[in-house]
Design a protein that fits this description.
Elements (H helix, E strand, L loop, with lengths): L27 H40 L19 E3 L2 E5 L5 E11 L6 E12 L5 E12 L4 E12 L4 E10 L4 E4 L3 E4 L3 E5 L1 E5 L4 E12 L12 H6 L11 E11 L4 E12 L2 E12 L18 E6 L3 E5 L3 E5 L1 E5 L4 E12 L3 E11 L4 E12 L2 E11 L4 E5 L10 E5 L15 H6 L1 E3 L11 E5 L1 E5 L4 E12 L2 E13 L19 E14 L5 E10 L4 E12 L2 E11 L5 E4 L29 E3 L2 H5 L5 H16 L1
Antiparallel strand pairs: 1-3, 2-3, 3-4, 4-5, 5-6, 6-7, 7-8, 7-9, 8-11, 9-10, 10-12, 11-12, 12-13, 13-14, 14-15, 15-16, 15-17, 16-19, 17-18, 18-20, 19-20, 20-21, 21-22, 22-23, 23-24, 23-25, 24-28, 25-27, 26-35, 27-29, 28-29, 29-30, 30-31, 31-32, 32-33, 33-34, 34-35, 34-36
């Protein structure tokens, strides 16, 4: 069979079926179609992006031309997203602490700060901090800001803080670290606790450790401890004695630069120009430590005591000044007030002053409110005007006005006390009670041997002095030695009546300003009395009375007057200390102790006498040795001898 081919197929034109014969292996046309398609794809791959860029460019040029490109660029009012446009209603934030505590913060409205995405401003804030003991502290404020990154809440305006522990605070600004339970404020605060009320310019509360710090212009009112009188306490003392600082039922108001409260240790420490006032009493010191009962706030439990926050003890550091009203001032290095036992101790360089002129110094002063007593020990020196008392232990009862001065070695004393009483200068003796002429006629008169200055001060040394300022009596005991000018008295006991006031002023005595310094008016010596003149003449007896106003002395009992070897015996010796003259006599029916009189029998003149005349032994040689007194002594002896032989 013959075959034919159509060369026109290679021309690339389609052939209609039936018009020719197409050989099965001829694909020339398909290849041409494929080439054209591939070329179109390559063109579109580059053309489409270029077209898009061109379109955007044309659109941008059109906008710029419409806006006036090339002439001016006006401000466009572009829409902005502002923080106040992103508000939240009733937001809530909460968390837990590592110690088991919990906190949460809510607000009526919150606004997100787009510049600080972690800060949210709040309005109508309430919050709650719960510690590990499940005690809650509630916080409320008008507005604030919460930083959820640092867990800090800043509060402003009308801030109230309260809680289960009775802590209440009003602030104008505060910062709360919710995670650590710390509240701080650098603006004035007013806080109320179970212990009292506090105001200051700055505050820090550390809730977890129960520590509170107040700084700058701190003013505190601390709850007092009601004072209950002891069954053994003097009722008069309870009514009239001023209360010991810290033991009164009045609150204690304290001002300071700083206050640190540690409610775990129950200690509040005031520092910087501390002044504490309770009723008429005030205390100033650089630092004051206050220990209280229970809790400064409260435990929040049902068994919490009514004594929570009440004073237990106050300790003030150097220097300390304590004032009781306007008249009494006590200073020292430290002061310790125990409100429970109602006792206080002021230690180190103690100085006690009372208006107008009383002053007592010592090393340590102890005050006992129950006994209403003051004990001053160490090197004790008590002065009132020119009067002076010295010893090492002074015990004074304010209600009764009784006082005792001793000098035991346990308190640094020598066993001897000293007293000095100033008598009015230029005082003249009252001669109305001078030795009468009938006494002179009945006894033996001697010359001016016992003369002394009635205006000279009276100095006394003894083992002990007891003073009753109400009865105006001072009693010296224990080898007493009293001196006035050249006149010396020795006895076992010497009691003195005085006018004015001796020692400290007590509540049983009139106001100190209305009392003068003590002035002795009369003295009585008992137990082995001995009087010595300036020339060595001595007189001994069983008792002696001294009338300071009349400036006379009467020695009685078994009276022996000696000068050298010369001896005169009798039952009474009357001395005019202004003139120095003395008269000795023997009263019928009396003796050393009110018994039988002494006679002139025996070698030394002793014996029984009923004539009422004294006996004497004179040694003329010894009398001659006394220059200036020979003729006077001789006449006295002659006079005695003449009367004794009649």
């Amino acid at each position: 069979m013959a075959s034919a081919s159509d060369t026109s197929v290679t021309s690339g034109r389609d052939r209609t079926a039936g018009k020719g014969i197409v050989l099965a292996g001829d694909r020339t046309a398909s290849r041409h179609v494929a080439r054209r398609h591939s070329k179109g794809v390559r063109i579109l791959k580059f053309a489409l992006p270029i077209t898009a860029i061109a379109a955007v460019s044309v659109y941008g040029l059109s906008i710029m031309q419409t806006a006036g490109w090339g002439t001016s660029m006006p401000e466009l009012a572009m829409p902005q997203i502002l923080p106040e446009n992103l508000a939240m209603e009733n937001p809530h934030y909460e968390g837990f602490n590592a110690d088991g505590g919990r906190y949460w913060v809510r607000a009526a409205r919150a606004k997100q700060d787009l510049k600080a995405m972690n800060v949210i401003t709040l309005e109508g804030i309430t919050g709650e901090l719960t510690d590990a003991q499940k005690l809650k502290t509630v916080i409320a404020a008008a507005r604030g800001a919460f930083d959820n990154k640092s867990n800090k809440l800043e509060l402003f305006d009308n801030i109230d803080i309260s809680g289960d522990n009775e802590l209440k605070a009003q602030l104008t600004r505060a910062s709360v670290n919710t995670k650590d339970g710390i509240i701080t404020s650098d603006q004035p605060v007013n806080v109320s606790m179970a212990a009292g009320k506090i105001s200051a310019n700055q505050m820090t509360i550390r809730q977890k450790v129960k520590e509170y710090t107040f700084i700058d212009n701190v003013q505190t009112e601390i709850k007092s401890r009601a004072s209950n009188a002891s069954p053994n306490q003097n009722p008069d003392a309870t009514k009239s004695a001023p209360k010991l600082f810290g033991s009164s039922n009045e609150p204690v108001n304290i001002t300071a630069n700083r206050l640190d409260i540690n409610d775990a240790t129950k200690v509040a420490t005031f520092s910087g120009s501390v002044t504490a006032v309770q009723g008429p009493a005030s205390l100033t010191a650089p630092e004051l430590e206050v220990t209280y009962e229970g809790s400064a706030t409260t435990s929040g439990k049902a068994e919490a005591s009514d004594n929570n926050g009440k004073l237990k003890r106050l300790v003030a550091q150097s220097p300390v000044e304590l004032r009781q009203g306007e008249n009494d001032v006590v200073t020292g290095q430290t002061a310790d007030f125990d409100a429970v036992t109602q006792k206080a101790v002021i230690d180190g360089d103690v100085v006690m002053t009372q208006a107008p002129d009383r002053r007592a110094v010592g090393d340590r002063a102890e005050f006992d409110q129950t006994a209403d007593s003051i004990l001053l020990t160490g090197t004790v020196n008590l002065t009132q005007g020119e009067n002076e008392l010295r010893g090492s232990r002074l015990l004074f009862y304010r209600a009764t006005g009784k006082m005792q001065l001793t000098a035991p070695s346990a308190t640094g004393g020598t066993g001897r006390i000293f007293a000095r009483f100033k008598q009015p200068a230029g005082k003249s003796a009252d001669t109305s009670t001078a030795p009468a002429e009938d006494i002179k006629r009945q006894g033996i008169a001697f010359g001016a041997t016992f003369k002394t200055n009635p205006g000279a001060p009276v100095s006394v040394e003894a083992a002990k002095l007891d003073v009753d300022d109400t009865a105006k009596q001072a009693v010296f005991t224990g080898d007493v030695r009293a001196v006035q000018g050249d006149f010396i008295i020795r006895s076992g006991t010497l009691s003195a009546a005085y006018a004015g006031s001796a020692g400290l002023s007590g509540t049983a005595a009139p106001e100190p300003s209305k009392q003068g310094a003590a002035q002795i008016s009369r003295m009585k010596a008992r137990d082995k009395v001995q009087i010595t003149s300036n020339d060595g003449q001595t007189a001994t007896g069983d008792w002696a009375d001294f009338d300071v106003k009349a400036n006379t002395a009467t020695l009685g009992g078994n009276v022996v007057l000696t000068q050298g070897k010369n001896i005169v015996r009798g039952t009474k010796l009357v001395i005019d200390m202004t003139t120095g003259e003395s008269v000795i006599k023997t009263e019928a029916g009396t003796g050393a102790a009110g018994g039988t009189a002494i006679s002139s029998g025996g070698p030394d003149g002793a014996g029984a006498v009923t004539s009422g005349r004294p006996s004497a032994v004179f040694f003329p040689g010894d009398l001659k040795a006394k220059s200036g007194a020979k003729s006077e002594k001789k006449s006295a002896a002659d006079g005695w001898q003449q009367r004794n032989t009649e």
